[in-house]
Amino acid sequence: MQLVNSDRGVSIMRAAIYARVSTANNGQDPRVQTRELGEFCERRGWTLAEYVDIGISGTKEKRPALDRLMADAHKRRFDVVVVARFDRFARSVSHLLHALETFQALGIQFVSLSEQLDTSTPTGKMIFTVLGAVAELERSLIVERVKAGLRNARAKGKRLGRPKVILDASKIAALRAQGFGWKKISRELKVGFSTVLRIAQEARESGSENDNAKPFRTPARKVRIDSVGGNVVAAAFH
After folding, report:
1. Which residues does the annotation mark as catalytic?
2. For 102-133, what is each residue's pLDDT tens digit?
3. Which of 58, 187, 204, 211 pairs with 14 at a CA distance of 20 to 30 A?
4. What number does CATH give the domain 3-132?
């Protein structure tokens, strides 16, 4: 909600200015950015609050000041966000677009001085729409490339998904004979607990725990397995 000047009866815009100095520019003074942003707001009679991240790389997801700005946006503590350049504010096009969509939903304007973007103007709204279309096209192209890659791999007979794991059932039987519990066997062989049960179950069904090494996947049901007389015996349980 905008402030109202009781003397003039006009609304006063509350601005949030955001500045960032990256780790690659240790000699840069953040006041260069904040001064320019502050003067822009003052010429328009806007009140302002500063959010400044110092020594933060543009690729970092967590930025204390920016995170605080976004939290305050949801609390409606300002009406417009002003930045010097896109790359001072966002780490990627998708990040910028997501932030702009958030501001739009909250009724907050966005101004970037370098790119001359002001989402309160018809031109700014058009640029915002174009950015959204470009981002959507980029997402669609990525999805299509992934699908094309999968189709090509299948056509060449390549197996997709996680690689199969080879485990000799006799190793399980040997550890079981030494008194190892199923969870301990799982840790010892560095495979999943359900996988150990599956291999033992397969050995029982084949009639021997000494089958050749075979590929396995996680079983659809759990089993309880015991070693009796050197043979692996299993029974299903719920």
Report:
1. 22
2. 999 999 999 999 988 899 888 888 887 887 77
3. 58
4. 3.40.50.1390
